[in-house]
Design brief:
Helix content is 42%, strand content 4%. By secondary structure, the protein is mainly alpha-helical. The chain has a two-stranded antiparallel sheet. The longest helix has 19 residues.
Length: 257
């Protein structure tokens, strides 16, 4: 299977990225964090997890519900003997797409829009690198910054704003609900869609020492996120109890989202 092939992808993928590049500005990101990261709804985590039947409109590889990709990623991590916290990260890394259940078309956070939920992310508040997917859409973004933009050299990725979506939403949700995983896990969740950083080696001027240390962990996780995708492997019933118990170890029964 040829992964991340954007040359032959369908028109919905192209449309999503065009809308993402037009609308994901520094102002939009700040507004979205303030709007969506209040976490004032309370539900059982497992009930929400079971409802994650969203199809990712930005994905040129996978044409099935994200729910199956959760298990595929986690199983590959488990089979390679990685610790439970990393298995959990594999299982829930895209859970932030639950945003669609409280989204709006205006923000691109509904099931049929998604440009405010999914897609490769980029740092807002500085120039968008031409190594991003569909760089021809960069000129549509109304922000006009030079390479460094509003930031200071070596400020650290934890101190910049990335285009808003499921990564940032889930990172903040887990922190709000006091989920106890190592910092490596939080980096995997928060930056796994920032391909410009961990795959294209952009943003070195923003990196601090912690980012440099954590980058290898994000790259390791990306291998499992990307290369386990399978439209046919959907038999999850045999492993569901294992992961249900794994979730209990790390995540409260009820979460705020």
């Amino acid at each position: 299977m040829d992964f991340r092939n954007y040359k032959d992808c369908n028109k919905n993928v192209v449309k999503l990225y065009k809308n993402q590049r037009i609308n994901q500005t520094l102002e939009f990101v700040k507004k979205s964090i303030n709007k969506y990261c209040q976490f004032n709804r309370k539900d059982k985590f497992w009930d929400l997890f079971e409802k994650m039947n969203l199809k990712d409109l930005s994905d040129p590889d996978l044409d099935c519900e994200n729910y199956y990709h959760f298990y595929q990623t986690a199983e590959a991590i488990r089979k390679d003997g990685h610790p439970e916290w990393m298995q959990l990260v594999g299982l829930i890394h895209d859970f932030g797409k639950i945003l669609y259940m409280k989204g709006s078309k205006e923000d691109g956070t509904t099931e049929d829009t998604q440009w405010g939920i999914v897609g490769d992310t980029f740092v807002v508040g500085c120039k968008i690198p031409d190594t991003i997917v569909f760089p021809e859409f960069n000129k549509l973004n109304k922000d006009d910054y030079d390479e460094l933009g509003i930031y200071k050299n070596k400020i650290g990725l934890n101190n910049v704003f990335c285009s808003f979506g499921h990564d940032e939403y889930l990172y903040r949700l887990l922190k709000f609900n006091n989920v106890n995983i190592p910092e490596e896990g939080f980096y995997m969740i928060r930056f796994h869609s920032l391909y410009l950083w961990h795959d294209k080696n952009e943003y070195d001027f923003l990196e601090d020492d912690k980012d440099k240390k954590m980058k290898s962990y994000v790259k390791l996780f990306n291998k499992y996120d990307l290369y386990t995708k399978d439209n046919n492997n959907k038999n999850m019933n045999k492993i569901k109890n294992y992961y249900k118990n794994l979730i209990k170890k790390f995540i409260p029964e009820y979460i705020y989202w």
